[in-house]
Amino acid sequence: MAQVQHPDGRIELADATSIHGSRFYNAELAPVPIERRTWTTYNYFALWMGMAHNIPSYLLASGLIAIGMNWAQAFLTITVGNLIVLVPMLLNSHAGTKYGIPFPVFARAFYGIRGANLAALLRGLIACGWFGIQTWVGGSAIFVILGRLIGDSWTGAAEVFGQPWTMWLGFLLFWAFQMVIIWRGMDAVRRFENWTAPLVTVGFLILLAWVLVKAGGLGPIFSQPSQLGWGADFWKVFAPSLMGMIAFWATLSLNMPDFTRFGSSQRKQAWGQVLGLPTTMSFMAIVSIMVTSGGIVIYGEAIWDPVELASRFDSPVVVVLSLLMLGLATVSANLAANVVSPSYDFSNAFPKRISFRVGGLITGVIGIAIQPWRLISDPNIYIFAWLNFYGGVLAAVAGVLVAGYWVHTRTRLELAELFTERGRYWFRGGWNWRALVASAVGAVLAVGGAYSEPGAGPFPADGLIPVLRIFYDYSWVAGLAAAFVVYLLLSAGRSGSVPTTEHSNKEGTSDRPRESRTDPAAVDG
């Protein structure tokens, strides 16, 4: 089961058929052969453009405006948050490009072959929630577009569960369209991202142009005062808001190996992300801030939902064009950020029974069952409850992966062993208790003190665990730092890698002594 290291540092198995018989293997989870690792800097830039330019990204900045920040405060919060989350994202991306493996297989090296399912399903279930949110706002855009084209018979249809039945129909149509694309596989997702990326930007520019005209230019927009000032009232909400901005991409900071496994080099995937994430999110923040602030000038209130704002436009042509572009933006982001990852995650749980396509369908069903319309009903719930809570939990997983890969194993893994029962990554019964303990400590410290202002969220005002309340304002940082430290402390003194000979490409981690036997991987790959 020798593995070959190429001059650029990327590694593949010399004979990939050696792992085909493993019950922890399927074609989607298998290491990508070098000849299929073809994604360029543009592919990753376009991927981020597609993922960042969407309605939930827009809601980050508009939500900050709605809770009282001015344009400068909102832009500062979002920009700093994205620069911070880019660091663990790039650190975890490295393994995908080097070994051609997706996130759930990467997690096996530290959580164990079975334990990786815990980390993967945590990420996957949150992605299902995001898939539902994106699909709901996309369905809302369809509802408004068809309402302008058909008239009151569409918008005034009989209500079912508190919404017009036509709204539910738009939601289901939007859901079905996405399922068709994901059923066609990963290449279809990549092609869709490439050609929709420029169109997405057009939709938001149409929205911005209309608001600028109606508001009388940039002057009135940027003169909107902060309701919080720059004193204690602002800094009180800055920290939890910053954690929310980081948490927005905490999911991708874990599962970027799902995409970087196709990278043609470490340099290209890294530059694609460095150029893609901060720039596209900054653009999205500026557009959202100006549009929302312009809405205050025009309508006297902060309308944080762009679909609702667009529905007030006078011109049906502008309404249809802007919402059509926003709809494409939402599909692009949803496929990349919220379907690809859980598809792999669910497939990892039952490799022989759940394919990438079936995993995508499971994601779609759970995305409906989670009732996403409730999660975006209020900016306080969206930012301080939904984003902050799951961000703290996933930060603990990220802490384990970064500590394990970069510090404990020094980026050395054994590809074949990631699919081998009772091998190097089997630990005890397929679980690495050290990673589980570190994740639990990090998650409890991060979100154990979850609290909400009275009447503004689902948590008690004193926090779930009052003594930990102070950490919830820094949930992502607390979770990542605690899990990172605990994992390294528990793993101290244990071998993180095996020495390699001059001609050997075998690298890895171990939780137990290797059996005394001749290792076939010692043969020159």
UniProtKB/TrEMBL annotation:
CDD domains, A to Z: SLC-NCS1sbd_YbbW-like
Keyword entries, A-Z: Membrane, Transmembrane, Transmembrane helix
Region of interest called Disordered, as start-end residue ranges on this chain: 495-525
Main location, first listed in the record: membrane
Membrane-spanning ranges: 44-65, 71-91, 120-145, 165-183, 195-213, 233-254, 275-298, 318-337, 358-376, 382-407, 431-451, 471-490
Compartment(s): Membrane
Tagged with keyword Cell cycle: no
Family designation: Belongs to the purine-cytosine permease (2.A.39) family.
UniProt name for this protein: NCS1 family nucleobase:cation symporter-1
Source organism phylogeny: Bacteria, Bacillati, Actinomycetota, Actinomycetes, Pseudonocardiales
